[in-house]
Amino acid sequence: MTIQQTRIDRRFQALKNEGRGGLVTFVTAGDPDPETAAQILAGLPAAGADIIELGMPFSDPMADGPAIQASSLRALKAGQTMRRTLEMVRAFRQSDPDTPIVLMGYYNPIFVYPAEAFLDDAAAVGVDGLIVVDVPPEADNELCLPAMKRGLSFIRLATPTTDAKRLPAVLQNTSGFVYYVSIAGITGTAAPVVNDVQSQVARIKSSTPLPVVVGFGVKSPDQVRALSEGADGVVVGSALVRAIEDSLGANGQATDKTASAVLDLVKHLSTALRP
Amino acid sequence: MENVSQGQRNSYRTGPNEHGFFGQFGGRFVAETLMPLILDLEQAYEDAKADPEFHAALKHLMTQYGGRPSPLYFAERLTEHLGGAKIYFKRDELNHTGSHKINNCLGQILLARRMGKTRIIAETGAGQHGVAVATVCARFGLPCEIYMGKTDVERQKPNMVRMHLLGAKVNAVTSGAMTLKDAMNEALRDWVANVHDTYYLIGTAAGPHPYPEIVRDFQSVIGEETRQQMMDVEGRLPDSLVACIGGGSNAIGLFHPFLDDKDIKIYGVEAGGHGIDQHNGHAASMSGGAPGVLHGNRTYLLQDAEGQIMEGHSISAGLDYPGVGPEHSWLRDSGRVEYVPITDTEALDAFQLCSKLEGIIPALEPSHALAWVCKLAPKLAKDHLLVMNLCGRGDKDVFAVADHLGMDI
To answer: What is the pLDDT of residues B106-156, one digit of tens each?
Structure first.
């Protein structure tokens, strides 16, 4: 409906002008603690993140593998709440007016917030989009349409099981971009098969003008480079939260290496997309 | 709340609607990878329902393999002891595998075969559903993997052994609280990764649509038989029904055929654990929880103010699930069924009473229902007909109970 371009639209336009795919980074809000997480978030754009997915921690992340499960639990244990997650975005926005932030997670913490108030607050603090894993197009009137009304993009996952019959339903109210899940499975496990992914991405792109990014199971610059062929961006998540996990001290607390471990990895991965 | 009873306000039996909702509860809140499968399952179930051969095959299995119908037994000594209502047990603990779980498994395994699936996965809490799944998989020669929380593996050893003997692979789940909800998370993760050949055989009347409807329909044989048997024995319908609720499959099976008999009082008994005033000390999602979305459906959940799911507690591994089937949530809010909590201690007392008075060792799950019967029956007239679903036998629980009672064996 809006003629005004969103932050997400502008970013993909800029990437197109640069002639490269974008690096989309996922970290969980509040992992491993609020201060370190804020430090990581603030450092992501300079490290090479073009779009930031910020996980809203949930006790039962059914579509996620062990790395993101653990990340979610660390954040919750450190006292993360939905309000703190939104505050984190507000603080980030004060110094970065350009990098799109997409909140990603599960429906229940939004449902009990409750949903309408959550969408108001998310739009107010400068969130650009939402990925809510367990709200399919069949339930668009609950969250997707109210989000769009507030100018928030509702980004849908398309998967290897999204066949030609199903794809139109998935694309119908999607905005911002489409997230192609490169494997039938959970995050951070199997590695995607590049050729299969490229043909699937081509199929989706022939059905929508929206940018398509690819994620799930991506850990190396080589994968980033290969998967970005034909796509508009590549998502890295589990590898980043695993870097957090590996940097923690024996007591499970952040160390002075935690933020740099994540940011260095982002820098390393982003070289694959830059000349 | 448009929905279920639109234009048919006189019936409680028409749900779910085409989107899988019972009022605001139910639905299909799953990841996109699973949506096409859920839609396929819905179609396959509609086809099966319309196929007389499917019904005939199921009836044959239920009778010859499952041991149905289960008796409706007049619990004479318990009735005398409590001094009020005339108490009947629906003896679903006499089914093959020792609980009502086999009813649903026989139905769903036939469905899985119709769909051409070659691998079965399932979650289990107390292990009763796991055993029933392992049993039907053995019977039909299909490989099967069962997800069971590590905590439950430890407190339900006998069922663990049974599943192994039946040829199932049991995966002890170490994520989260290591109980039923975590087992369900892991089963869903397995399913997402193996969608091409795998059928997820959900054991309770929860999960995404169409599971709550499928499980209810296969369990409704309990209530249908009860209706007929009560007419045969007493010449009229019962006055009240009692069943325990974890996810609620045995309860919805008993209740559903009676929902429109408005004079019949219906009680669902939740696991009150240490008491519903104890923070995270119970598993009574309807008496002490709030609506939310988990495992594919909207329903009452044990959760904190942030929408994070709590683990819950019950002495019974089959009842400590933080959710409940969506149809129960709807029946609660509509006032048709009354849901009440029973504590661990009350259930343990009832377990012992039943063993000694009736010579039946009940599972800890229906011991909760029995404890409510013990409270209710003395206040009722002697001609009041009460039916309790004795949905499982207690063999699996004897070691845990001995432990709780400090018995030195």
So the answer is: 999 999 999 999 999 999 988 999 999 999 999 999 999 999 999 888 878
Q: What is the pLDDT at residue B9?
A: 60
Domain at A176, CATH number: 3.20.20.70
Q: Active site includes A64?
A: yes
Determine, yes or no, domain membership for A1. Answer: no
Please, which pLDDT band fits residue B322 given cuts at 50, 70 and 90? very high
Q: Partners of A51 in the beta sheet?
A: A24
- Provide the number of structural domains found in chain A: 1
Do residues A229 and A250 make contact, with C-beta atoms less than 8 angstroms apart?
no
Tokens of A104: 């990603």
State yes or no: pLDDT of B361 exceeds 90: yes
> If you measure CA to CA, which chain B residue comes closest to A143?
B29
CB atoms within 10 A of CB A35: 12
User: pLDDT per residue over B64-85, tens digit each?
Assistant: 999 999 999 999 999 999 999 9
Q: Write down the pLDDT at residue B408.
A: 80
Return the CATH architecture of domain B67-98+220-404.
3-Layer(aba) Sandwich (3.40)
Domain ranges for chain B, please list them: 23-62+101-215, 67-98+220-404
Between CA B369 and CA B262 the distance in angstroms is 21
Fold classification of B23-62+101-215 (topology level): Rossmann fold (3.40.50)
Mutation pick from B2, B19, B21, B32 vs chain A, by most beta carbons of A within 10 Å, is B32
| AA letter at A207 | S
Q: Is A53 a catalytic residue?
A: yes
Under 8 Å between Cβ of A51 and A44 = no
A132 to chain B: nearest residue by CA?
B31
A66·B307 Cβ contact <8 A: no
Q: How many CB pairs under 8 A join A and B?
A: 114
The answer to whether the CB atoms of B35 and A62 lie below 8 A apart is no
